[in-house]
Amino acid sequence: MPGPDPGPDPVSGATTRERLLEATVASLRVHGTAGLTSREITRAAGANLQAITYHFGSKDALVAEALTGMLRERLVPVRADLDSGDDPVERLLAALGTIIGSFSAARADLAAYADAMAAAAANPPLAAALTDLHTELVDYIATLIVDLQREGYIQRWVDPPAMAALLVAIGDGLAMHARYGEPDVDGVLDQAAQLLLAAREPSKRLAPAATRLLLRRLHSSARG
Length: 224
Known about the structure:
By secondary structure, the protein is mostly helical. It has 10 helices and no strands.
């Protein structure tokens, strides 16, 4: 039976558990789930093989926690934009600008996520973690849509859970395309923005020229 956790690393201050998570994320970015091995993870973390079982129960559980933690970290600035006190359109465009601006830096993370979605069928802890993450995202976005409907910014015909699921599916599709090709991120997110703006109540709807101006601002801020 593995012994107790030896405690924080004297140099980095990170615990064995934290180092295992960091090493798993680093390996996922390089090798994806298919090339991930317990031996490589523990070597990079400066731990023994038994440490994975001690801290997570299994390598599958470690991968699930590392991947969902990585994704949640990527979502922090997007959620910050959406939760700001600005006008709803400004919040939406700020969030889309953050996504566009960080897409290149996140390519390795998106590729790892795409690999994980493909591997989830053979990894029950990962499948459960991804299901929980999707449910969390859909619930979060649906709540935002309900709030916007209450404030008169989005028409009542929009079904919040269905629209939220559609937006999450768009994100999943971009991740899969990033793994195997070069997605037109700007074009896809422009269409998503146009879709949401078109769902605005007539009294708050923007003219096409104004919409195009806002989208140009979005790309300018994202690239700036």
